[in-house]
Amino acid sequence: MIIRIEDIRSCCADIIAAVDNNEISVVTETLELLTKGEYLYMSVTNREYYAQVRMKINEGETIHATVNAKQFLKLISLMTTETVEFKTNDNCLTIKGNGTYRLPLIFDGDNLLEIPVININNVTAEFDVSSEVLNSIL
Asked: Three-state DSSP class for 13?
């Protein structure tokens, strides 16, 4: 999958504030990348909250990877190429930009680790909050 660096960098800037700095468990320091239809979802959690950013991509391109959030986000922030390419193999997410980088995938036993979604029952309202507002609260 090939993505324009400005698009992925924008999503990374939105989700970086939600990455937990406490290294309590593997789940709190991971980021899950998952394509569904024409969107790429990037998700993080600390088991108290769940944050997800959605980015429009070309439909048909698939990826599912769970990697160290800090490593991934720092790498993307340092890229200076126009596009970045993502591929997964058995144990790595390969990122091609200024060079070729391999981030190890994080597994839970034999299966790729999936970020647990925190569902809120009986949602009474739905709204969007800009990352600037969330950063000002922090």
From this structure: helix
Nearest to 84 by CA among 127, 55, 113: 55
Cβ atoms within 10 Å, residue 5:
18
Angle at 52 between CA 28 and CA 30, to 5 degrees: 25
pLDDT tens-digit series, residues 43-56 = 988 767 788 999 99
What's this model's pTM, rounded to 2 decimal places?
A: 0.78
pLDDT one-digit tens code per residue, 26-74? 666 889 999 998 899 999 887 677 889 999 988 667 899 999 999 999 9
Give the single-character DSSP code of 72. H
Residue whose pair of structure tokens reads 């144990």 in the numeric block? 91
**DSSP letter, residue 60:** T
Please enumerate in sequence order all residues whose Cβ is within 8 A of that of 117, keeping only pairs 6 or more positions apart, or say none: 43, 50
- The type of residue at 108 is D
d(CA 138, CA 128): 17
CA distance linking residue 103 with residue 99, whole number of Å: 13
